[in-house]
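User: My collaborator sent over this chain with a note saying "see what the structure looks like." That's all I know about it. Can you take a look?
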Amino acid sequence: MIAHLGERVNIVKGKYVLNPTGSFLITLHFSNEAVWLTPDKDVKCVTSQPFVGRKYQIGKCIALVCEYLGGDILSFYNGITLKELMRLRDISIIKWITDDSRFKEVPLGSAMVGDCLVYNYSEVAKGNHIGILHSEGKILHHLPGKLSCVDTFIPDKLLGVFRYHG
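Assistant: Without extra context I'll predict from the sequence alone. Here is the result:
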């Protein structure tokens, strides 16, 4: 990253990608809308964009959605143990969300910004990824081992669109 000091990047599929008109400037100085290379050699995304540029930890796609939705679903998430989180992950997000009366499935054609999108992240993790419809054709999400970001959504992996009524 140091070799690209002064250049601009975007976050695409959870990774920094060089782009001359990118949203973030790579810098050694703490500043807004920047990828800050800290004195202790850490890389931090500093942004005013809510939920973007966060480093991944186990269960963070669920955490990002719960934080975005707020209210009682955030209280539920904040009170969950790691063991319970792993159980939720193992039964699949699609099962959890369809069993939770606060979520109602809606047709893709009726999806609105803020709706939850559940999809297959990989062949191994079927129904184990969730994000938020950010804007037309875009998803706010947190891929495993990557940075949270807004990406183009691929509808062929979609399992369901759910509206939260909390």
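A starting point for your reply to your collaborator: The chain has two domains: 2-46, 60-164.
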